[in-house]
Amino acid sequence: MKPDESPESAVLRAVREELGSVAGGEVRIVPGSYREKVEERYSASYPGLPARYVLYSVDAIVDGLPDGDFCTEEAEEYGESEEKKVADQAVTVRKHFWTWVSPDTVEL
């Protein structure tokens, strides 16, 4: 979540960012599905640094998704900026492949 962003706004933004134009329909959060999980462990990025991660999850209904496997491509996030110059040097994934799985195979 971004600073000052509500969980509901974060869900809508995340769905738009991850699924792009594939998710052309309405996005609804399933009532009562909001969960918060706190993990305290050492940072993977900075070995030896204690870190506290607060993870949020919700179940959402996203109208308009394909019935079968599909793929999405990331749009340019930074435009022509200094951030883009730095981002271009990183290894990134621009195309994502999605497949449906049975709900009982997902660990939360």
Automatic annotation (TrEMBL):
SUPFAM superfamilies: Nudix
Domain of life: Eukaryota
Protein name: Nudix hydrolase domain-containing protein
Species assigned in the record: Linum tenue
